[in-house]
Amino acid sequence: MADNATHRYISSFFLVGIPGLQDFHCWIGIPVCLLFALALLGNSVIIITIKLEPSLHQPMYFFLCMLAVNDMALASSTAPKMLGIFWMDAHWIDFDTCLTQLYFIHTFCIIESSLLVAMAFDRYVAICIPLRYTTILTTPMVIKIGLVGMTRAILMVLPCPLLIKRLPYYTKYVINHAYCEHMAVVKLASANTLINRVYGISVALSVMVWDLGLIAASYTKILQAVFRLSSQNARSKALGTCAAHVCTILVSYTPALFSFLTHRIGKKVPPSIHIIFASLYLLVPPAVNPLVYGVKTKQIRDRVVGLFFPNKKISGN
Hints:
Function: Odorant receptor.
Subcellular location: Cell membrane; Membrane
Membrane topology: Multi-pass membrane protein
Oligomer: single chain
Keywords: Cell membrane, G-protein coupled receptor, Membrane, Olfaction, Receptor, Sensory transduction, Transducer, Transmembrane, Transmembrane helix
GO molecular function, one term: G protein-coupled receptor activity
Largest sheet: 3 strands, mixed
Number of strands: 3
């Protein structure tokens, strides 16, 4: 009660953007805007293409459609506020709005990881047990897998803002970040934050270890099955169906792992570098994933070419 009498709870936070690079914010906003626009346009094209092309109504492309929707939501939860900071000096954010942004960002990140696991499982079934593919990955099963991934993310992230809500925030209100990131917000509390820190790192580690472990297990089985094939052409074709997914995994997890490690153990890494990578792993995958699948997947590539260039003859390669 004494604390309440002598302190006022803060009602909003000040998002710095990228510390040390404030003079370049207007220029940094340009690639952020381009990535955001590319994410919205590219993923919209993927969704429309899959919807219009009956031959793409398969589990692999249903998962890709879910990924596209999630990528648009992830980019939309971060980029507008970043652009507001970089171009309009809109640094202030309401306390509850900050917690809402924090919740959605981390929820969409975990959904993204769940979908990458689901897509690895799809490739495992398609290559290792192809005769059972249509009976295992039915449309209801695909929907259930998507719902399980979404439910897992919602329940895992929900305690984060709730635990922050119980903390007192009296004097510190400056967040050295371009968006409301969990640990960046927790550090400002005027109380012991051990529970918050332990829960946050436990969620991050469990998702990363569990999901990467499942993906690695799937691809170990896939490689074993592929190298048992006698035909070189069959091997190339089987591996070709996995190429886009492997590229997506690398694009999604590489900056995420770097950001996670520098935040926890990279004490000598400049804050600006950490925040740039933390922002990249939220904006680059949503922008790049449609390009990867558009280039690597012939059915999508041909359909997109047909949509934009109806008179162009589609190559049979």
